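quick one before i forget lol
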Amino acid sequence: MNNNPNLETIASSVTPGKMKNVKLVLLGESAVGKSSIVLRFVDRQYVENREPTIGAAFLNQKCNFKDRSIKFEIWDTAGQERFHSLAPMYYRNSQAAIVVYDITKAATLDKAKSWVKELQRQANTDIVIALVGNKLDLVEGEDGEPLEDEEHEREVSKEDAQAYADEAGLLFFETSAKSAQNVDNVFSSIAQKIPLETMHSSNSRNAMSGRNISNNGISLTQPSTQGNLSSCAC
């Protein structure tokens, strides 16, 4: 799974008439890094100390991947409990979902598991779900060795999370929105797994609300040029 190709920003647009829309929703506890993951994917940026998302934010990104051209229509939902009741509005008819937890806080994995159960019960039966443990930079160095940081200790082992993902039929990654590690792989794996016939032809559909960002596009078949930084991926 981790051998999937990364992404690279490109200036060329995708061939008209071949674009497919993929509605994707991000779910998870507040402050696990959902918005930072999306910002890294769409804008290729990381912003420290982001304000919490209110309701949901909408972003989109065009991608080329092998035999398909995709426009990800991304709903980044708020993690606060008071917005939970709004979630079905965003994951309804979604072809994909990314459920995020913080690998330094075990309770956020419990919340992620509850989101997975809800998606499997109420979302599309063929929805592709990726379980993502974020903030890898807090517990591992660039060489992959554990960091000695008493303030940010790993509370969720990769083995336990992987075992749960395998049992539940999920894609699984550990990421760092700060350093960009594995962020692109999450989206490339989703693009690869969604059956082409379940994608919708691109047209001028209006978003319900939120911020709309449209880049020139990215290619999921090119190696990434992103840097590798360290620190908190909040």
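fyi Residues 106-122 form the longest helix (17 residues).
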